Amino acid sequence: MTCQALLDDGDEVLIPAPYWVSYPESVKLAGGVPVPITSDLESGFKVTVEDLEAARTDKTKMLIFVSPSNPTGAVYTRNEIAAIGEWALEHGIWVMTDEIYEHLVYGDNEFHSLPVVVPEIADQTVVVNGVAKTYAMTGWRVGWLIAAPHVAKAAGTQISHAASNVANVSQRAALAAVSGSLDAVGEMRTAFDRRRLTMTRMLNAIDGVECLEPAGAFYAFPRVTGLLDRMGIASSLDLASRLLEEAQIAIVPGEAFGAPGYARFSFALGDNDLEEGLRRFRAFAR
């Protein structure tokens, strides 16, 4: 809805990659042009102001900013967010910031909301969020945006014709979730924290796999090019296919996120299943 409300035909949207699979498609549906900005393991899957400036043209309308990130688990620091927000403000670029994983950060990492860090950019920022991740309510399909009144009105008009409204029972459930205690979220975060450390350790023990410790969300995003070369597998897409067929484990290939040579592993599952799946991966990779 944000893209439909803000973009005109030919508007360019900067999208740091790896990105969630829907971002480029949402831009295209609104007539815009997605402009991926590559990041990698060495950069911690983050882009800098210099990266953004190198991609900016007179057609740049919006930046899609995500922290914590799906699929990488990267979390930007307050200073990094401030620099990006001030850059967007200086150049009159809209920012859509996806904060769906705001409560899922680990260790010394902290979540910071871009329009809170740079309040001056609030009127050219759209914050999107929902109940799916923090409250484990993926099937309820409830989300929201926070934006200037004219943007919120335009998005509301669009959604009213596309989906009418969120079902009443879903609205009631979402209100109960966001107005209630976050104690259960803390327990869930503790479990995710334990699993992310286990997953990172087990992935890095496999020859040809390199994995950063994710700082947020509930995904690890290892580089698997060494494994592909060693085993003669053409791509991470082929690796995912073979793992499903031969080891009965499911991963998402990096191609889906604009990052071939990587793969997304989720640690949003039980400890025993997680360890069994990674043991199967290790056995496959021998």
Helix and strand topology:
Elements: H1 2-6, E1 12-17, H2 22-29, E2 33-38, H3 49-55, E3 60-66, H4 78-91, E4 94-98, H5 114-117, E5 125-130, E6 143-146, H6 149-162, H7 168-179, H8 183-204, E7 219-220, H9 225-231, H10 236-247, E8 252-253, E9 263-266, H11 271-284
Parallel strand pairs: 1-2, 1-3, 3-4, 4-5
Antiparallel strand pairs: 5-6, 7-9, 8-9
Question: In words, what does this structure look like?
Answer:
Its cofactor is pyridoxal 5'-phosphate. It is an enzyme of class 2 (transferase). Belongs to the class-I pyridoxal-phosphate-dependent aminotransferase family. Residues 3-280 form the Aminotransferase class I/classII large domain. There is one protein chain. 42% of the residues lie in helices and 15% in strands. It has 286 residues and is an alpha/beta fold. The chain has two domains: 2-179, Aspartate Aminotransferase, domain 2; 183-284, Aspartate Aminotransferase, domain 1. It is globular, with a radius of gyration of 19 Å.
Per CATH, the class of the largest domain reads Alpha Beta
Number of domains: 2
Helix content: 40-55%
Task: Determine the mean pLDDT.
Answer: 96
The helix/strand series, from N terminus to C terminus, equals: HEHEHEHEHEEHHHEHHEEH
Instruction: Provide the structure class.
Output: alpha/beta
| The named CATH superfamily of the largest domain | Type I PLP-dependent aspartate aminotransferase-like (Major domain)
What CATH architecture label of the largest domain applies?
A: 3-Layer(aba) Sandwich
CATH topology of the largest domain: Aspartate Aminotransferase, domain 2
Rg computed from alpha carbons, rounded to a whole number of angstroms: 19 Å
Sequence stretches where pLDDT stays below 50 over 5 or more residues: none
Within the largest sheet, what's the order of strands? 2-1-3-4-5-6
Our count of helices gives: 11
**Global outline:** globular
What's the number of extended β-strand segments? Answer: 9
